[in-house]
Amino acid sequence: MNWMWFLAFIILIAICGALRHVVLRGRPKETTGHNPTFVQFQRKYFIAYFLALASDWLQGPYLYKLYYHYGFLEPQIAVLYVCGFASSVVLGTATSTMANHYGRKKLCITFSIIYSISCLTKLSRNYGLLILGRILGGMSTSLLFTAYEAWYIHEHVESNDFPKEWVSLTFSKATFWNGVLAIVAGVVSWLFAELLDLGPVSPFMIAIPLLLTSGAVIASSWNENTGSKKVKISKSCMEGLRHIVNSRRMLLIGIMQSLFESVMFIFIFIWTPVLDVQPYPPLGIIFSSFMACIMIGSYLFEILSREPFRIPAYTIVNGSILLGLIAISACVCSTKSYHDYRAVSYTSFLLLEVACGLYFPSMGFLRGRILPEAHRAGIMNWFRVPLNLIACILLMVLHGDSSSTGTQHMFIICSLLLALALFCGIRFANMVKDDENLKVETLDAGNKTENGSIEAVVVH
Questions:
Q1: Residue 27 and residue 137: Cα distance in Å, rounded?
Q2: pLDDT tens digits for range 88-117
Q3: How far is C-alpha 450 from the geometric centre of its chain's CA atoms?
Q4: The whole model's pTM is what?
């Protein structure tokens, strides 16, 4: 049976490569961004950022497996995941203010230190210490996806005075290599954890030198930058809430995002226990297959949003939610027996990841057009609150039932959430169908939004 997982992975990589070829053929040749000073600046950012990303991806495939290996039951593991999700959202609301006060360089170095400590806690079988590690891991994830990007944008625009249009060039490259790193990290984690039989803790130990190297590069080559220290979290959040209440478009966008992404958070927890039954599969290879599917979805978004299709972003978002709903609904049936229907569950998970690849760049485009730039941080903070609450509450519900019936109930609830998200998406589409600003898709828009295309599955 194991060879089937590898065959699926190879096929998905081939599809991904073919779609990338189609996408590159349709893109105009780059005529900007070749300034030697800019290229050197990019390289300085990429070295530190990619090391940090690689360390994060390495920890994805075997987190659940590690806790199970230590003898913890599924309800106990659910609590560990909830701690990570909760700490991520709590710190996420304060990250921008912390960066303004203490400096973005300092936060990036702090990330490398606390994430290394989080990895070290994985060596312990003590439940309290593992909870601490999950809290530190959630905090680290928030820093990874805010501080690095904030540092780059400030240095790009304010310190070096490069054209703002070149920011999308950097993020487009970062997105591609982020996907590549995710795929490679899954293979590497499988190599050490299973092929070399070093156990599920080995990927976490490999991540530590990458984190420390990233921190050393930042300390030695990055400049410090800060923002306005007058911005207060409470004021930003209240302004964001006021905009959401006064705009039906923002409200619907927020509901769609919270519902869809909460299901993705549940998936992060649940895919391993569903698939990891005898004969045990190569989890790292499965993880890499998931990442390849997300890249496939992001390439499909770019193809569908330009000539000859020019499908509006809100239609692609609804299509991705529908695809996710179909995939999750199939899991309701396949989880009656993990062993007998595992192939159905795996295929459904692959479709769900393709849906993620379609969803994130298209939703990012809509947020870019609808959310006011000055209040985006405050609005996004409010969007994250129900997202994390839904995910945490559902996982705590699972806390009371570790059987396959409990998992099946989780998929039923997730199906209902996606059905509600699709209803809101249809309402949103009817509301904005005559808005030309949301109909016209451009390659540049795809490049600007795709840098968040695999963000949802990175919160391990």
A1: 38
A2: 777 766 666 676 678 889 999 999 999 999
A3: 11
A4: 0.90
